[in-house]
């Protein structure tokens, strides 16, 4: 008899759980995925708008240490269409109006050159920064997490770094953690920088050669359904009753109840407790999850008749509301999608990301767009005098659990919950810094391993970043 597995949430974590179970033992599992939205993919979704044009949740960078994600797509027979950048980060500097180049990439030498030429710093500061990065690479997880009670701002002050270095490094908190440095956890900051500077990859930072749905979601959905999995879109789960003697019961908002031997929660951590009976909400690990919070993000897509960008790099910026720009990242998707057979647009499709957007949420769409146009004209000469013929402004809800101060004391370190047959997946539960696509994929793989262990079946190896020999992680 097959084991019944119900997965709540059809983002990358839910899809990864299902795909790994069906890769390992398709004859042993009956898998059902319940997804509240009409489309799969969660934060990694894309869809066609009313005019048939692709819209994504937002700019997604794929990092060279995302080995588990690459391995999964290779295993299902759909290697990812990756579009490599030159690896550098281009920083729109609101104070100077110039774009600074931060050299980075798969080669250690280039990364070291990046530190030695770090923009906006004096030679003495660059030496200090290099020493600081080496200190970070020597920190193990335990040491990194001992700084979880500090914000990035406090940690950088405590490290006695110069004002210039503090200003430059604060960039990471916004672009990666999606939070302002005053609220972002220093532990996550350390873990990300350690992996970025301390690991080696085969390629540079990449984008996908097709919208997220085509590149990431459809191949997984296709594999799951071809191997007997069932996907229920537009089916929100209202409650999950853990098993006492018989199977667990999950009930949709339409009042339909399903039974399952295992239930995998693959929704953002803060959404889990409300799905459980009240008596479980105040117990570990659920009580702490209720204190996690999403981070507000705005994604703007601009369609131009002409090419207003000359490359496919991502341009990031300092969170400097005084000098601008309003955006945290900008990239031309038409450049990444140029080999995608379904691409119809001739001109640029500019995606603009505003992370940690709570301070601009009060602005109307028209006000946000006006500011974005002004900033694009300021930094990108080809945008001058060009007005997009169409635009969308997405105010994203239910995004990832923000890695705020205290984050590491709240996130679970295992997938078991203490309730029989109830498991946790999701980017917040796994990975080297518990955020992002790779963490979501790893979490699904790890939960699949737990379920496979129950039936004495071999699991999958969880791949670690390829750290340089002296890095302690
Ligand atoms: C704009 C943006 C940019 C990003 N950029 C990057 C990047 O550059 N690099 C990177 O690695 N990561 C990036 N991320 C993060 C990455 O997208 C996420 O870490 C990852 O997709 C999380 O996957 P998940 O499956 O854990 O969660 P989710 O994608 O949130 O999936 C959870 C799913 O559960 C569903 N759900 C919730 N409640 C219920 C319910 N009651 N019943 C049924 N279904 C439910 C939701 O609809 C959702 O589909 C970005 C995220 C955003 C929003």
Question: Characteristics of this structure?
Answer:
18% strand; globular; alpha/beta; FAD/NAD(P)-binding domain; binds flavin-adenine dinucleotide; 5-stranded parallel sheet; Guanine Nucleotide Dissociation Inhibitor, domain 1; 3 domains; 473 residues; 7-stranded mixed sheet; 21 strands; 14 helices; Polyamine Oxidase, Chain A, domain 2
Explained architecture:
The protein has 473 residues and is of the alpha/beta class. It has three domains: 3-45 and 211-292 and 403-467, FAD/NAD(P)-binding domain (3-Layer(bba) Sandwich), CATH 3.50.50; 102-200, Guanine Nucleotide Dissociation Inhibitor, domain 1, CATH 1.10.405; 295-396, Polyamine Oxidase, Chain A, domain 2. The protein is built from 14 helices and 21 strands. It has helices at residues 12-24, 67-75, 108-116, 123-137, 141-145, 152-158, 163-175, 186-198, 212-226, 278-281, 286-289, 333-336, 365-379, 436-454, and strands spanning 3-8, 29-34, 46-48, 54-56, 82-84, 89-92, 99-102, 199-200, 206-208, 230-232, 237-241, 248-252, 257-260, 262-265, 297-303, 315-317, 329-332, 349-354, 390-396, 422-424, 466-467. A seven-stranded mixed beta sheet has the order 7-6-16-17-18-15-19. A five-stranded parallel beta sheet has the order 10-2-1-14-20, covered by helices on one side. A hairpin with a 6-residue loop joins strand 6 (89-92) and strand 7 (99-102). The model has no long low-confidence stretch (mean pLDDT 95).
């Amino acid at each position: 008899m097959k084991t019944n597995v119900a997965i709540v949430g059809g983002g990358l974590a839910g899809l990864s759980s299902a795909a790994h179970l069906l890769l390992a033992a398709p004859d042993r599992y009956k898998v059902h995925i319940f997804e509240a939205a009409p489309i799969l993919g969660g934060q990694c979704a894309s869809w066609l708008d009313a005019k048939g044009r692709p819209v994504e949740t937002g700019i997604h960078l794929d990092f060279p240490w995302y080995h588990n994600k690459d391995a999964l797509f290779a295993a299902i027979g759909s290697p990812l269409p990756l579009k490599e950048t030159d690896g550098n980060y281009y920083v729109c500097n609101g104070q100077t109006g110039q774009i600074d180049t931060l050299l980075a990439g798969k080669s250690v030498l280039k990364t070291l050159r990046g530190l030695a030429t770090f923009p906006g710093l004096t030679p003495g500061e660059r030496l200090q920064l290099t020493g600081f990065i080496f200190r970070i690479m020597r920190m193990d997880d335990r040491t990194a997490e001992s700084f979880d009670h500090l914000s990035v701002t406090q940690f950088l002050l405590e490290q006695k770094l110069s004002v210039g270095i503090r200003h430059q490094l604060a960039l990471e908190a916004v672009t990666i953690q999606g939070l302002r440095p005053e609220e972002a956890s220093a532990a996550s900051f350390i873990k990300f920088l350690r992996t970025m500077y301390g690991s080696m990859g085969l390629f540079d930072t990449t984008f996908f050669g097709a919208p997220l749905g085509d590149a990431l979601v459809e191949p997984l959905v296709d594999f799951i359904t071809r191997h007997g999995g069932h996907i229920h879109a537009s089916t929100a789960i209202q409650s999950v009753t853990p098993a006492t003697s018989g199977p667990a019961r999950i009930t949709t908002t339409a009042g339909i109840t399903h039974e399952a031997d295992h239930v995998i929660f693959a929704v953002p951590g803060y959404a889990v407790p409300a799905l459980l009976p009240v008596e479980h909400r105040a117990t570990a690990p659920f009580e702490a999850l209720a204190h996690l919070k999403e981070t507000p993000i705005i994604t703007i897509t601009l369609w131009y008749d002409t090419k207003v960008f000359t490359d496919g790099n991502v341009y990031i910026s300092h969170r400097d509301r005084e000098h601008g720009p309003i955006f945290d990242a900008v990239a031309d998707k038409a450049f990444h999608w140029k080999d995608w057979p379904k691409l119809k647009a001739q001109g640029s499709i500019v995606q603009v990301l505003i992370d940690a957007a709570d301070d601009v949420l009060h602005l109307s769409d028209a006000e946000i767009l006006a500011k974005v146009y002004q900033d694009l004209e300021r930094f990108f000469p080809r945008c001058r005098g060009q007005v997009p013929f169409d635009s969308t402004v997405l105010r994203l809800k239910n995004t990832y659990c923000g890695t705020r101060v205290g984050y590491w004391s709240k996130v679970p370190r295992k997938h078991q919950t203490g309730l029989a047959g109830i498991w946790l997946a999701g980017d917040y539960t796994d990975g080297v810094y518990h955020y992002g696509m790779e963490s979501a994929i790893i979490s699904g793989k790890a939960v699949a391993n737990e379920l496979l262990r129950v039936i004495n079946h071999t699991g999958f190896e969880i791949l670690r970043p390829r750290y340089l020999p002296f890095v302690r992680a």
